[in-house]
Every structure is written in C-alpha cells, then in structure tokens.
C-alpha cells in the first residue's frame, strides 16, 4: 500500500471486503488506529436504474462484525439516515433521494439494518466493558 501523505492517518471507504481492506491498512500503518470513514450500507440510485440499490441485512451484519469485532476499527456510516436533496445538487443522473438503503430510511423509519446495528453496538460495548447506550425517553 502506497502512502499518500507520510505520517498522516490513512482510512478506508468500503461496503464489502471490509476485513481485507482493514488488514491491508493495518499492515501499512501498524501503530495507528483503524477507521472506516465511509461505510456504505447501500448505494445511491440513478435515473434508469433497474431498482433500488440495497444490501442484504445478513451481508451487512457480516461486514459490520468484521469492522468492529475482527478488525477492531471505528466506523462512520455513510449514510445512517437517508434523506432527500431538493437543491438540485445531486448531479444529472442521480435521483434526489439519498436513501442509500440506510439503517434509518429516508422517511425516518427503522429498518432491519437499524435493529441489527443496535444489536451489534450493544454487543460491542458489553464485550469491551463500555457503558451501555442510553435510550432517551419521549
């Protein structure tokens, strides 16, 4: 792996083969933390696509398990909450929906990925002796 800027923390953007990419990154910078800057739970849709770009929840679980438990990496979901761009800044072929098959849908609904993420984060924090997540009361 070639360093882009020596001494600067390198990170990964992934949505598959996460463990492979993070293992390679660990070899390139063995004394630095691992971080996935953009972990894509799905993908954006373009006009004319044959359907909504989604990721199976079982594959999602495997990949997040690899990132958190096997690679011991931190992760940023891109996107965690889908949304809509009405500003026409999405590009000529990309629809204004930015749903990305996110754990929280564009309409704000919980998805199977949301519940799986919650389960994995609770397991991760418990195994590492971290405080459990607080659930806000309405």
From TrEMBL:
SUPFAM superfamilies membership: (Trans)glycosidases
Listed GO MF terms: hydrolase activity, hydrolyzing O-glycosyl compounds
Domain spans labelled Glycoside hydrolase 35 catalytic: 8-123
An annotated GO BP: carbohydrate metabolic process
Domain of life: Eukaryota
Family of the protein in this entry: Belongs to the glycosyl hydrolase 35 family.
Protein name in the entry: Glycoside hydrolase 35 catalytic domain-containing protein
Organism: Oppiella nova
């Amino acid at each position: 792996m070639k360093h882009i800027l020596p001494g600067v923390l390198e990170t990964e953007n992934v949505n598959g083969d996460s463990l492979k990419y993070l293992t390679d990154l660990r070899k390139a910078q063995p004394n630095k933390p691992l971080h996935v800057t953009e972990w894509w739970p799905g993908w954006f849709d373009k006009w004319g696509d044959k359907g909504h770009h989604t990721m199976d929840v079982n594959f999602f679980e495997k990949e997040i398990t690899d990132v958190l438990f096997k690679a011991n990496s931190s992760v940023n979901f891109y996107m965690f909450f889908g949304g809509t761009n009405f500003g026409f800044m999405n590009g000529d072929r990309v629809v204004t929906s930015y749903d990305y098959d996110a754990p929280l849908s564009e309409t704000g609904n919980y998805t199977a990925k949301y519940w799986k993420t919650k389960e994995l984060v609770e397991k991760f924090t418990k195994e590492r002796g971290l405080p459990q997540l607080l659930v806000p009361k309405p």
